[in-house]
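Sequence only, no structure available. Ideas?
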Amino acid sequence: MSVTVQEILQELKTFAPPELACSWDNVGLLVDAGRPVDKVLTALDITAEVVQEAAAAGCQLVVSHHPVIFHPMAQITAEDVPAMLLQKGISGICMHTNLDATAGGVNDTLADLLGISREDRRNFAENCGRIGTVTPTTTEAIARFCAEKLHSGVKYVDSGKSVTRLAEVSGGGGGYLQDAIDEGADCLVTGEAAHHIALLARQKGVGLVVAGHWGTEQGIADVLAARLQAAFPQLEVRHAAADTDPYTYLNV
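Reply:
I predicted one. Tokens follow.
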């Protein structure tokens, strides 16, 4: 039996309240095709390939982390993804920084994977990061773990010191390195970091693991799929196979 897009939107708002989103963000029902839903894809990004997969599978909704409409659009063409969604009769719901910040969202998912203790885990970085204790390890070991588990390109700055307090900010969180240092972190895991952030890590003697924007966030699509399937057992929900890292990595 079908459900409405608004019913699904309300469930997602309960999970990741829109008021948690940053003021500059664009979250919620961004493309409304006006159709009842019985099949859903989840994804980190709504790309043309994800729309094609959704259409081929007969889905009426795609739920993503990154907004399919972010900056104001002066014009729209048939090749733009929002237009593709409407042409196929597919709605798009996007939960971005509210899903970063919420309990059980993007950053708790990454923190769990990294083994950050729930006993003393705290929010930082505008509630979009997590910090807490880990079993003593090294920056290199964390980097190797990320390379194995996140399946994206990984680079790191090694402090040469033991890591017992680990911070993480998924996606483009390198700018929060100083915040992590101020919170007493021995190492920060994030998706992207500028060159000067790597220099700061070296200067301050803290570890930095840059594990890819896609790699540090793509796990949330599985979390979304599981939550929607539990809330609406009548739906068919799955993580889009076309939701892949846009980068290709060289192994030399």
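Residues 103-216 form a domain with the Udp-n-acetylmuramoylalanyl-d-glutamate--2,6- Diaminopimelate Ligase; Chain: A, domain 1 fold (CATH 3.40.1390.30).
Hope that gets you unstuck.
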